[in-house]
């Protein structure tokens, strides 16, 4: 057995009727590898978003992937889908319950509180990274997925709500998907008006309980507002006659919502008011919003967020107003693919490929290194692994480079390099080694 294992390091030996068979280890269901052809697209999206965030004066924060389970129980809410059935929770070796983060907001608040970032100051923050939820994997829904999160703290007016919405609108616009998404907004009011609405909703739904789907019947006692979110047609039909959340808003929330709409109009961001929009996490109040698309089937929400003024206090800090959102990166990339918004040329990863034939390895390395120093924007691949001229040229062609620089013993003797254009119909040129950097500057 030892021998078998050493032969195949990525295989496990499985004992089956006295025989050992080898079973390949595969990725965990719902957790994806990102291969080079996709990672270039992700890098493009991540860089575009990071650039926009910087232009709005947002700063990056990074926090761990693993947190105390208590953090999520206390923030997201015990009777939410996430905490009830979606968390990756386990005891560490010390017997402490820890959880792979299912979202970033609670972590961000924890980190800010722990380091005093919320004391007497405002913050505009962002982060990017993996989140983990034990859901049924399907297109646009995975067990490890990635979010770009934006959180702001210390500002209670509708101006900052409008700002984060303008920011999210710009991200979608600059990535070329603006015409395929719609912004839906709603106000969830303050806790008192929400509680009043909850009672009215429950009273109405109790009368028609038999027409509710099973999930919604259960939520009637645990989390009735989430029924508004139900995907069941029969439940949605029933909700047509239900009391409307916006009719129950307290005055302050109403004024906040009205001013938000004024600012969105002024900023040129169109929206639909969706009175049934609620969020799946308990900590939201006042503004709630989602960017939805009809290009991704039932996983239609690309970006979601809202105001969560009570969360910091709920986690032991001073009352601190906050608003933010999360963009699902997988869904964003799927959307870009679906509407053909991925720029051409991302697959090109090299400009120059250095071919070295004969005993010139040392000089070829020197040439490549000098070019990387002199022309830092150039992407230079140096051929490794030997092979004859023809094979090396084949590699050069496959590398996506535009130009092959060919070095052989003859070239070294003459202190020149041959320049072969791989994508254009141009004759090969011979350029002195001392001139090659200048020459490349003119043709790339
Ligand atoms: P959904 O209603 O689709 O389950 P959610 O309300 O649970 O979404 P949030 O917690 O608000 O989602 O997360 C913000 C964004 O993260 C979502 O709008 C979506 O784009 C993305 N997202 C959430 N869960 C997943 C998942 N399991 N796989 C991929 N992306 C996800
Ligand atoms: Mg969900």
Q: What structural keywords apply?
A:
444 residues; alpha+beta; disordered N terminus; binds magnesium ion; binds adenosine-5'-triphosphate; single chain
Count of separate DSSP helical elements: 16
Specify Rg, calculated over alpha carbons: 28 Å
Q: Tell me the strand percentage band.
A: 15-25%
Present as ligands are: adenosine-5'-triphosphate, magnesium ion
Strand arrangement in the largest pleated sheet: 3-7-8-13-12-11-9-10
Termini separation (Å)? 55 Å
Mean pLDDT: 94
Low-pLDDT stretches: 1-7
Q: Structural class of the secondary elements?
A: alpha+beta
* Helix share bin: 25-40%
> Largest sheet, if any?
8 strands, mixed
Identify the overall geometry. Answer: elongated
**Total strand segments:** 18
What would you say this structure looks like, in words?
With 444 residues, the protein is an alpha+beta fold. It is built from 16 helices and 18 strands. It has helices at 2-7, 36-55, 69-76, 81-86, 105-114, 158-174, 191-207, 214-222, 233-239, 251-266, 311-314, 329-338, 361-374, 389-398, 409-414, 436-443; strands spanning 11-16, 19-24, 59-60, 66-68, 88-91, 97-100, 123-132, 144-153, 181-187, 272-273, 285-293, 301-307, 322-328, 352-356, 380-382, 403-407, 416-421, 429-432. The protein has an eight-stranded mixed sheet. Strands 15-14-16-17-18 form a five-stranded mixed sheet, sandwiched between helices. Helix 13 links the parallel strand 14 and strand 15. Helix 2 runs antiparallel to helix 6 and helix 6 packs parallel to helix 10 (251-266). The chain is elongated. It starts with a helix and ends with a helix. Bound molecules: adenosine-5'-triphosphate (ATP) and magnesium ion. The site of adenosine-5'-triphosphate (ATP) has 18 residues, from strand 8, strand 12, strand 13 and helix 12. Residues 81, 280 line the site of magnesium ion (MG).
């Amino acid at each position: 057995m030892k021998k078998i294992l050493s032969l195949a390091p990525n295989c496990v030996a499985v004992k089956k009727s006295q025989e050992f068979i080898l079973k390949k280890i595969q990725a965990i269901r719902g957790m994806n590898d990102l291969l080079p052809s996709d990672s270039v697209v992700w890098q493009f999206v991540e860089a575009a978003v990071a650039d926009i965030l910087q232009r709005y004066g947002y700063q990056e924060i990074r926090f761990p992937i693993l947190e105390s389970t208590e953090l999520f129980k206390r923030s997201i809410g015990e009777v939410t889908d996430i905490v009830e059935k979606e968390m990756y929770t386990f005891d560490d070796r010390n017997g402490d319950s820890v959880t792979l983060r299912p979202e970033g907001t609670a972590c961000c608040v924890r980190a800010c509180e722990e380091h005093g970032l919320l004391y007497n100051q405002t913050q505009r923050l962002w982060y990017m990274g993996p989140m983990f939820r034990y859901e049924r994997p399907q297109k646009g829904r995975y067990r490890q997925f990635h979010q770009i999160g934006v959180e702001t703290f210390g500002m209670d007016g509708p101006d900052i709500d409008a700002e984060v919405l303008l920011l999210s609108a710009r991200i979608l616009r600059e990535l070329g998907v603006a015409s395929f998404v719609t912004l839906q907004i709603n106000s969830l009011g303050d806790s008192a008006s929400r509680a009043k609405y909850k009672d009215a909703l429950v009273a109405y739904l109790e009368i028609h309980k038999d027409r509710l789907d099973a999930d919604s019947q259960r939520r009637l006692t645990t989390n009735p507002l989430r029924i508004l979110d139900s995907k069941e047609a029969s439940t949605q039909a029933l909700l047509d006659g239900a009391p409307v959340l916006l009719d129950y808003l307290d005055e302050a929330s109403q004024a906040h919502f009205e001013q938000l709409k004024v600012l969105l109009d002024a900023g040129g961001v169109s929206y639909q008011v969706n009175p049934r929009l609620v969020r799946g996490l308990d900590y939201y109040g006042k503004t709630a919003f989602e960017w939805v698309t009809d290009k991704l089937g039932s996983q239609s929400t690309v970006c979601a967020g809202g105001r969560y003024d009570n969360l910091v206090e709920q986690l032991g800090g001073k009352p601190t107003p906050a608003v933010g959102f999360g963009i699902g990166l997988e869904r964003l990339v799927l959307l870009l693919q679906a509407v053909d918004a991925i720029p051409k040329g991302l697959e090109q990863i090299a400009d120059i490929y250095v071919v070295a034939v004969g005993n010139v390895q040392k000089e070829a390395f020197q040439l490549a290194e000098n070019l990387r120093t002199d022309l830092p924007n150039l992407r230079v691949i140096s051929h490794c692994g030997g092979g004859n001229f023809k094979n090396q040229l084949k590699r050069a062609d496959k590398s996506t480079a535009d130009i092959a620089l060919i070095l052989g013993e003859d070239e070294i003797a003459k202190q020149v390099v041959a320049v072969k254009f791989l994508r254009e119909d141009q004759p090969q040129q011979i350029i002195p080694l001392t001139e090659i950097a200048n020459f490349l500057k003119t043709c790339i």
